[in-house]
Structures are given as structure tokens and as C-alpha cells.
Amino acid sequence: MTSPILLITGASSGIGRATAELAAEQGYHVALAARSADKLEALAQELTERHGTKAIAVSCDVQDWGSQQAMVKQVLDEFGRLDAVFANAGRGLDGKGFAGSDPDEWREVVLTNVLGPALTLRASLEALKSSRGHVLITGSVAGRRTLPGSFYGATKSAVQSMAYNLREEVRGSGIRVTLVEPGLVDTPFFDSPRENALKAEDIARAVVFALNQPASVEVHDMCVLPTPPIDD
Ligand SMILES: NC(=O)c1ccc[n+]([C@@H]2O[C@H](COP(=O)([O-])OP(=O)(O)OC[C@H]3O[C@@H](n4cnc5c(N)ncnc54)[C@H](OP(=O)(O)O)[C@@H]3O)[C@@H](O)[C@H]2O)c1
């Protein structure tokens, strides 16, 4: 079988980058999308040299519809098809609750975490219908738990709903939809290192597990959390 083509948003860092590394190691061709073109170019070169896979860098701001359309066009121009999309780009915020947060920051978070993946779906679904492909979306455990004052959690609840509603929309098309809901992961998402946290590679293994299932198997939801520390 020819190598599947995987597009990853938020591939310049953290979970997206780790997923690109593991997928390339396992023979996927990867399209790496984010705003940091320099980081993506370096990663694409590294993956190509190390794994002999085809890896391309795609500059994209997920908030922007034109940018997302250009991203998918670049992938189709380069590879001729698209087999899987990992809509993973996202950001956190300086959570000061509903009484204290900066409304402008809320706008940025909604545009990135909610509009961003929605535009990724809108731009890529036609190609995925042709390939009977796979959509994976990064939510968060914060989207399924009650966290006091968490606007971020509200955006990830929207992502969960998006995944569930998309699955019903594409039912019968052969497209599979996987919602990935990580717990705490030690990535540049945070300003300082996190303890008792997962590594980005832990989520990458879960994503690639879902990707590697046969076409007859759809992994629906993967909530992946760090094991609680042992009480001594
Ligand atoms: N870390 C955690 O504990 C955790 C837990 C649950 C869920 N998540 C989710 O996991 C996903 C990845 O986060 P991470 O932990 O890997 O964080 P990260 O290391 O900060 O990575 C975030 C990625 O998103 C990209 N991005 C942000 N805004 C963008 C935009 N407007 N357009 C295009 N790309 C954009 C960033 O690239 P550029 O800056 O280069 O554009 C970067 O590649 C996010 O959706 C996050 O909400 C994280």
C-alpha cells in the first residue's frame, strides 16, 4: 500500500510535532501546518532525512479561512490526495474566570480552538470523502469536566460537540472521526514545566493507534490522562 497522507495542524510544537515524528517513523507522508514557518521547515527536513518520508511545511493561521483553503490546496497539489487530518492547533489562556479574564483573549481562544478546527473540517472534508479518510480532533479532558471559571474548557466542550456532530454528518461516507481528549501534557502550551503530566509522545502514540486501525474500526473517543501519583 502507498504511504497515507496525514495533515496535522499545530505541528510546530508539542502534541502535533510528536505525532508528526511518530507518524513519519511509521511510514506516513506528513503535511505540517502552523504559523511558525521556520520551525515547520526544519522539522520537515529532519523527518525527510531521518525516515525517508515526504514531509512538507505549510504556513497556516487556523483562524483564517483563506489560509486554511490554501493549506489543503497545497497538500493536494503536493500529494494528490489526503487520507487523514489531525485538527490539533489550539491555545490556552490566562484563566482568570468569567469575572476577571480579558475578553479580547477569549475572542482569540474561540477563533483558534473552535473556529480553527471547524474551518479545517470545512476545507478538508471534500478530499476526505474521496479518500474515505480519517478526521482526528484534539479536545481536552477540560471539555468533559467541570472546571471552575474555565473558558478554555468551554471551547473544548465545543470541540467535543463538533466531533460528535461531524460523525453523524459523515455517517455512511466511510470517513472515521476520532476525538482525542488529553489530560495534562507537558508541552510549550504552558509557560513552565508541568509535574505529574503526560509527554507529547504519549498522546502521539494514542493518535497513531487510532490512525493505524483498519478501515472497519473507528476509534471514537480517547481520553488519555496521567496515572495519579502513588501515595507513599
Ligand atoms: N498541553 C496540554 O496539557 C493539553 C491538554 C489537553 C488538550 N491540549 C490541546 O492540545 C493541542 C496541542 O497543544 P500542545 O499542548 O501541543 O500545545 P503547543 O505546544 O503550544 O502547540 C500548539 C500548536 O498550535 C499551533 N497554533 C496555535 N495557534 C495557531 C493558529 N492560530 N494557527 C495555526 N496554528 C496555531 C502552534 O503553532 P504556531 O504557534 O507555530 O502557530 C503549535 O504548533 C491544543 O489544541 C491544546 O488545546 C493540550
Any chance you could write out the topology, listing elements then pairs?
Elements: E1 5-9, H1 14-25, E2 29-34, H2 37-51, E3 55-59, H3 65-79, E4 84-87, H4 97-100, H5 103-131, E5 134-138, H6 151-169, E6 176-182, H7 200-211, E7 221-224
Helix pairs in contact: 1-2, 1-7, 3-5, 5-6
Summarize the structure.
The chain has 232 residues and is of the alpha/beta class. The protein has helices at residues 14-25, 37-51, 65-79, 97-100, 103-131, 151-169, 200-211; strands at 5-9, 29-34, 55-59, 84-87, 134-138, 176-182, 221-224. α3 (65-79) packs parallel to α5 (103-131).
Structure description:
It is a single chain. By secondary structure, the chain is of the alpha/beta class. The chain has a single domain (5-224), classed as NAD(P)-binding Rossmann-like Domain (Rossmann fold, 3-Layer(aba) Sandwich). Helix content is 46%, strand content 16%. It contains seven helices and seven strands. A seven-stranded parallel sheet has the order 3-2-1-4-5-6-7, sandwiched between helices. The longest helix is centred in the middle third of the chain and has 29 residues, at 103-131. The radius of gyration is 17 Å and the shape is globular. 44% of the residues are buried. The mean pLDDT is 97. NADP nicotinamide-adenine-dinucleotide phosphate binds next to helix 1. NADP nicotinamide-adenine-dinucleotide phosphate binds at residues 9-16, 34-36, 60-63, 88-91, 112, 138, 140, 182, 184-185, 187-189, 200.
